[in-house]
Amino acid sequence: MRRALTADDVRVAAAALAEQALALPELTQARTVAAYVSVGSEPGTRALLDALHERGVRVLLPALLPDNDLDWGLYTGEDSLAPVQHGGRMHLFEPGGAPLGPEAVLRADVVLLPGLAVDRRGMRLGRGGGSYDRVLARLERAGARPSLMVLLYDTEVVEHVPEEPHDRPVHAAVTPSGVHRFG
């Protein structure tokens, strides 16, 4: 379904998604938010990142490590992003500043996660690389309890997604038309 979206569809959905997310109490009260830079037809995050930064929120963005774990760096505006090609697989935008280390995410009040779908239990279907599974396990081991939110299109909130033993549920899904909260 994402492949059928036009650039205009993605832009309009991104503005609506940012509006929904920015109204959430979790984000209005957050001092540090771990997020990501959307690519391609993913639900757009640029407007949301800019608005959070303008509010004075410390925004952490991931940098993919060779073992698929994530390091983190600061987002200080579009100029702080660097395009990175990972082994011919994917072209991402990552923070260009000094790396803060994989543990930096432990200080986040909210973690915004990418995904392909989420089900009514809050189980998120990722892209299969395991990067965010590692982040969620790291948070759990450390006893950190940020709000976990996946950013999706409306059609990607579904009845059921496959689940593996290491999967962890999210607290909410934010879509262009609203917020879905889970158990």
Chart the SSEs and their pairings.
Blueprint: H1 7-22, H2 25-29, E1 32-34, H3 46-54, E2 58-64, E3 70-75, E4 81-86, E5 90-95, E6 110-113, E7 117-119, E8 124-125, H4 131-142, E9 147-151, E10 157-158, E11 172-175, E12 178-181
Helix pairs in contact: 1-3
Would you give an account of this structure?
The protein is an alpha/beta fold and 183 residues long. The chain is built from four helices and twelve strands; from the N terminus they run ααβαβββββββαββββ. The protein has a seven-stranded mixed beta sheet with strand order 3-2-1-6-9-11-12. A three-stranded mixed beta sheet has the order 8-7-10, with no helix packed on it. β2 and β3 form a beta hairpin. α1 (7-22) runs parallel beside α3 (46-54).
